[in-house]
Write a structure and sequence with these properties.
Length: 145
């Protein structure tokens, strides 16, 4: 499939699902599409491609210890660390959390889904950036007992 056809299909998905942002990796290419303002046309934003021979995961990323429990995204959505832009994050790295505690919100199709912890322990890493689109099964938090 050529790049133009891929973009066309991704734009159709955005319009059909009324998405504000979409980031997809197809082979070695990364497509990031962002709606700039309500009613504005959707534009393709080039994402930096990884350098040849460099693995997609940065070597500077910390390695998980053997006892780390990972909280993963149960759905595709936009990751938010707090309930509103002017409020404090649900959790920060170094915070102690209990099973059932709200860790973040994932927005999908204009619905805000609270993501809770299945584990008690210390949050050692928050993987996505605030406002980042996350995929189903993507790591969100590392929690150590």
């Amino acid at each position: 499939m050529d790049e133009q056809q891929t973009l066309k299909e991704l734009l159709e998905i955005m319009h059909e699902n009324d998405l504000d942002a979409l980031k997809v990796k197809v082979g070695d290419a990364i497509f990031e599409l962002v709606r700039r303002e309500p009613g504005a046309p959707v534009a393709a934003v080039p994402a930096p491609a990884p350098a040849a021979g460099v693995p997609a995961a940065a070597s500077s990323a910390p390695a998980a210890s053997a006892n780390v429990k990972k909280v993963t995204a149960p759905l595709v959505g936009v990751f938010y660390r707090s309930a509103a832009p002017d409020t404090e994050s649900f959790v920060k790295e170094g915070d102690r959390v209990e099973a059932g505690q709200v860790l973040c919100i994932l927005e999908a199709m204009k619905l805000f889904n609270e993501i809770t912890s299945d584990y008690s322990g210390i949050v050692t890493r928050i993987v996505p950036e605030n406002g980042e689109l996350v995929s189903l099964g993507q790591e969100l938090f590392w929690i150590e007992p």
